[in-house]
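Re-run with default settings, no changes from the original entry. Doing this only to confirm the output is reproducible before filing.
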Amino acid sequence: MAVHHAPSHRPSAAFGSRLRHAVSRPAKDAVRPVATTATAARALAAARAVLGFVFLWAFLDKAFGWGYATKSSNSWVNGGSPTKGFLSHVSAGPLQSTFHHMAGQAWADWLFMLGLLGIGLALVGGIALRVTATAGTLLLALMWAAEWPPAQHLANGAASGSSNPVADYHLVYALLLIALAATGAGDTWGLGRRWAALPIVRDHSWLR
């Protein structure tokens, strides 16, 4: 009587070799290593803090006249206007007369200074980044319009000194603000998670 052997269920050597090769080869859509994600989060958090310090320093120097961009005698606390010197000298762009009218107005000074302070504190703390990105982009857009980089010459015919007609630091800062808000950069080295846990923030995602 012929004896029939049951087929072996052990994978062949060739199949085993292919299996080992497939396992050892990383998939194209493999999840990024945790270390890479953590490093990116820390880099964004550092960028957030530094940008926040830019706004905070501008507020403090204009408010107290620490002798960098603002002399003590011209400081806000000593009766100086944070907007008059800059806006009254706008000499390029289609909004010259508008900025001249705003220069030195109390409401303009308060809005400008509160904007600098609020944006700076929010960035350093890592909270309300969506609102901060919106307010910061608007403020930077107005500052860009006041400097008007597209102009090659000022109203008096002198060279404007503009190095780029479109992309200057205002645009870079605005894009960074948007990126920080979009990536939740306040969760690392910040109060973003605690802020998001507040009932009013949970109910209104635009406050994140």
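The chain has a mean pLDDT of 88. The chain has nine helices and no strands.
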